[in-house]
Amino acid sequence: MLLFLLASIGLLEAHVGSPHIVVEGKAGAFSLRVVVRQPEVVPGLAEITVRVLEGEPSRITVLPLHWAADRNGAPRADVATRVPGETNLYTAQLWFMTRGAYGVEVAAEGDRQGVGRMIVPVNSVASSRKPMPAWLGFLAAALGLVLAAGIICIAWAGAREATLPDTPGTPPRGPWAGLRGGAIAALVVTGALFGGNFWWAYEEENHASHVVFHPIRHELSLQPGTAGGTLRLEFTDPRATNRNYSLVPDHGKLVHLFLIGTGSDPAMAHLHPVREGSTTYRAALPPLPAGDYRVFIDLTHELGVAETATNSLSLPLPPPPASAAPWIPTDPDDSWLTSGRLSSGRGEVGTGLTLELSASPEPRPGVPTLLRASVREASGAAAPLDPYMHMLGHALVLRSDGAVFAHVHPAGTLSLAAARHFAAKSGGEAAARAVEALCGDLEVLPQPEAAELSRKGEIGFPYVFPTPGAYLIWVQAKVRGTVVTGAFRLQVGPPAPGPAGGASGTGPSHKMSDSCATLLVRCSAAARRTSAKVTSGSGSKSKTRRSGFSIAATPAPQMWS
Fold first, then answer.
1. Nearest 5°: phi and psi at 499?
2. Per-residue DSSP letters for 523-539?
3. CA angle in degrees (0–180, nearest 5) for 119-303-32
């Protein structure tokens, strides 16, 4: 049986319904958490908040760096202002005037600690079209009618007065000259109105098709095979054959595909389809329960664009175990979890293993929250973690109605591949290796430091919940070579009153967990050593920033066609 499903259209975000970019990292001697709310239109205003977690800077500045220009073409840096009543929270706003990728450079300056810099790459694309308010449309129409009537009246009066004779006693030419002038003016005004409406419709269509970014179109099909069948992904968008849209590995995988059931206690599968053709990929489906599933596909393109394509899928009943072929994962890191195992904070994830999840501070919309996960043995001791796709772990955040989805990592809501691309473009291989370490890539860190982080059995995920509601969270880690998954429920309340509840992320401060703080310190030190090794080996004299990175996008104009 073949099921064909057309891709749905969403916003250009590396997640769904999450406009915030969150990253925690070291900027020199300072530990910062930067939250950037991306603009929805271009030109647009990006809102930036900087929370200083460690250190006492005397000044914080933000500087927009466009991907197509060097530092000499950048404007003067803006000084972030301290939020009233806060001691370590700063805010700033930056205009993004053109489409493309911007690297927001956050610089923290201290009298004794010197200057530390962090670059947060940000998408600057039109993801939606703002509708005109009804009252403004009525007002514009009324003023347009008044203007049109005025033009006709002026033309009628001018034609009538211009026909009066200059010589006294000469009879006038008659009233028809004024009427003819008014009629001609009415025809001209009517033509201008129709022409203006045609131009407006053309510009609106051009904006919708060439300016607003649309996720890549694709189709899904399900074919019989192993225990759950074979899922085939085909990119039907003409851009798929464009070199700018070639996929690059993120955490070592070209495609991250998530299937999440639509019920109150849904099953989940995290798959990594492998390339079958130039634009087709396939993955063996595990024996998931029958029903409707939401599909989220994380992609990173060659120029650094990170997006999440969405779709839906209906799975039939799997064949009886006796007649079905056993499920053989297409990729060794593929994993799945059946329903009926959601918990509120602690759950079993394997033989003698439990996974606990807590949130600090209390989750509120627009306020940065740290999700702390820990894996424990039956004795209560920390379970050592193996690298799972280069990281200590991964987390999926889904609002129960599917309107919000995010794939979160220990360094924040970033695409490692996009961050590496932007770093390499900005500072070469040295910067690329440095950002891998800063993003928590355990395979880049020195083995003793990576082992120390793994022994703690703890993972921190910084995230900003965009809206209130009931959320489902899956935390994945690898223990003794096996991927374990914990599923949790979390209720995000309404915005708190006062400044703490807004989307600016001005919520209460909190200290990072020991594992998260240790990760930042270790990764920062490893990044400096990695940068020094690469720089000395290549003979480069370029200076490498010690920086944390977030979602990067470096689109070219033809990518909006």
1. -60, -25
2. HHHHHHHHHHHHHHHHT
3. 15
Strand 346-350 and strand 353-360: pairing?
Answer: antiparallel
Cα within 13 Å of Cα(478), Cβ side = 14
Residues 370/517, Cβ–Cβ less than 8 Å: no
- Between the alpha carbon of residue 500 and those of residues 25, 185, 197, 361, 509, the distances in Å are 22, 58, 45, 11, 10
Q: Which amino acid type is present at position 112?
A: R
pLDDT along the chain (561 residues), means of 10: 32 62 83 85 86 92 79 84 91 85 84 83 73 89 92 88 65 72 91 91 82 84 78 91 83 92 89 92 91 92 79 82 72 85 77 89 89 91 90 92 90 73 68 72 80 88 91 93 91 68 42 43 46 38 32 33 36
450 vs 385: CA distance, rounded Å: 10
Angle subtended by helix axes 514-538 and 447-456, to nearest 10: 170
Given a contact cutoff of 8 angstroms between Cβ atoms, the answer to whether 248 and 301 are in contact is yes
- Give Cβ neighbours of residue 203 (< 8 Å, ≥ 6 apart): none
Q: What distance in Å separates the CA atoms of residue 513 and residue 381, rounded to the nearest whole number?
A: 17
162 CA to centre of own chain: 65
The H helix count followed by the E strand count for the chain is: 5, 28
Q: Which strands make up the sheet holding 469-479, listed edge to edge?
A: 342-343, 482-492, 469-479, 394-399, 405-408
Say what the pTM is.
0.72
